Amino acid sequence: MILRPRWRSNEEDNLKTIQLIISTGRILKIFSNRANSGGGMDGVRDVMHLLEERVAMLTGGRDRRGGALLMFPTSARRDRLKPDDYHRLIKYLVSIPTDEVRETGFTVIVDMRGAGSTWGVVKPILKVLHDHLSSVVHAAYIIKPDNFWQKQRTSLGSHKYKFEVNLISMEGLPKVVDSSQLTPDLDGTLHYDHSQWIDLRLAVEDFMLQAVDLLDQLDDIQEDLARNDYGEDVASSKNGLEIHAAMKKRIMKAPVEEVDVSGQRLLQKLTGDTSSGYDSGYSGRDSEASTTNPDLQAAVPQILNHLDSIRSTQGHLLQLWQHKKLKLDQCYQLRLFEQDCEKQNVYVNIKRILAVAHRMMEVGHYAAAHIRTVANRLDRAWKEFAAGLDERTAVLALSVLFHHKAEQVYNSYQSLLNGLDLLVQVCLEFPPPPSSPPHVRYAVSPVI
């Protein structure tokens, strides 16, 4: 019976390091996705119909403190939106800038000039900010129309909000916000294209979803690679090698290059960098608007993190795949070795088995200690078997010699018996001797 203990080697430590790197990328992906989506918050497509009403904008302007401007331009469409609509729209807009900008606090500018801009229309905006988003609002400035009544001003001043609310004229607005940070409708010089802003946000969020989906695919592959699927016999270990080969095809077929190209093009749109060779589709004034808008630029680090995470994850997966491929190969060799050991009395050449064992140990097999133990046990068993076989052979040889000598003795004994029998027969053919011996006379010779 072949024992199969659990081994631990430096290669396993390396694999765990790679898995930790991939897991870190997964955590980065989760936090980046949450930062982009607001942890279950609406995306640009969810509030598209509200954005197209142009009742609220994130122009990229900053007040003199460095706080982001949340603009509510004059619009006859304000009465179309319900408080819940304002809540969803504003919550989405304030989620776009960086955490640092949110901590600084937004400056809200509501333009009450123009037809249909009454206090009854503006009040729901302030109430939504007060009830749901007061923690990120520094102050609100209401641009008053020329015929704004004194009693309305008094009513506004007496209303208590969790942030500062001020009435301000067009002439006083530059004291709070430099004209370079205001759009032309507020006598400023900041270029802002709302349609382009929506298009860029669509591109950013589409890329984020595409990148997160790809990272999910790579993460699933990583989980499959981390699975302990080393076969317990030759057939299952060979099947594991075939499945592992298909795993590499999954890694290589992942649309890493496609997502990378998409991300590079998006970065060019946001940064205006033409050195990459990609055609961003934006140029001139439109390109300038996107590159000078810090709220759009806030997506650049997220895009770069996603691109880096995708590239590094694929690279680490290939490295992890290669490490596991080596172990699966070694596992297959080990199962063949164990199978040969179990069949040693049937047909296996012991010297070949031991030679295979030595080769596996020399190349640094992860189960070298186990192989050495099994090989030594096999070598001892074989030597004991060979010694017993030699002893039995010697006994058989002596037995053969004994039987050969015994046969020779038997043959010699038979010849002797045959000779004695012949002698007896000859003796029986002679006449019997007389009863007394015959008298013999000898002549005497004369003496000379």
TrEMBL record:
Pfam families referenced in this protein's UniProt entry, alphabetically: CRAL_TRIO_2
Keyword Hydrolase on entry: no
Keywords: Guanine-nucleotide releasing factor
Record bears the keyword Cell inner membrane: no
Segments of skewed composition (Low complexity): 271-284
GO biological process, any: axon guidance
MF-aspect GO terms: guanyl-nucleotide exchange factor activity
Domain CRAL-TRIO intervals: 50-191
InterPro entries to which the protein is assigned, alphabetical: CRAL-TRIO_dom, CRAL-TRIO_dom_sf, RhoGEF_Guanine_NuclExch_SF, Spectrin/alpha-actinin
GO CC annotations, alphabetized: cytoplasm; extrinsic component of membrane
Chain residue ranges for the region called Disordered: 271-293
Protein name: CRAL-TRIO domain-containing protein
Native species: Nesidiocoris tenuis
Lineage per the UniProt record: Eukaryota, Metazoa, Ecdysozoa, Arthropoda, Hexapoda
